[in-house]
Q: What sequence folds into this?
């Protein structure tokens, strides 16, 4: 199955811990850490037919699919209250960037945005990809431009 790195809301799935574990064949290990079934972890990205359990009931994805949209910015209701709530979630601080990401996709296209996301979510020192919450690169020890996990 093909990995889909972009989400309707503008998030970069490539930095999701479950997506990365799927890509690296580490879903069993992550399932043990999270005390979940491996089936709940496996994810090929928001726009695929196989997503992690916590993304299966996403109202933003359901709305975009119903309307036949590739991204929320294409909607006549953009930005909507639902996307505002998603963006401002204290539990998921990395959501704050979705409007900027959607604007970049709109102005420069998906290919440009995907390259920018690969850079944004990789260690500047060694290039290793990292998730939204990893603060220090496990390969080189470099400081990463990530979000602190809420407590």
A:
């Amino acid at each position: 199955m093909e990995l889909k790195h972009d989400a309707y809301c503008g998030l970069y799935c490539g930095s999701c811990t479950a997506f990365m574990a799927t890509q690296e064949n580490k879903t069993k290990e992550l399932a043990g850490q999270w005390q979940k079934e491996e089936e709940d972890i496996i994810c090929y990205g928001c726009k695929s037919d196989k997503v992690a359990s916590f993304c299966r009931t996403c109202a933003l994805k359901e709305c975009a699919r119903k309307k036949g949209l590739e991204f929320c910015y294409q909607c006549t209701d953009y930005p909507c209250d639902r996307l505002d709530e998603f963006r401002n979630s204290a539990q998921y601080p990395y959501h704050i960037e979705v409007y900027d990401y959607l604007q970049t996709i709109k102005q420069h296209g998906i290919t440009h945005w995907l390259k920018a996301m690969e850079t944004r979510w990789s260690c500047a020192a060694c290039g290793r990809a990292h998730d939204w919450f990893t603060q220090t690169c496990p390969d080189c020890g470099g400081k990463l431009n990530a979000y602190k996990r809420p407590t």
Summary: The mean pLDDT is 96. Helices lie at 17-23, 27-34, 59-67, 81-87, 98-108, 110-120. The chain has one domain: 13-120. The two ends are 35 Å apart (CA to CA).
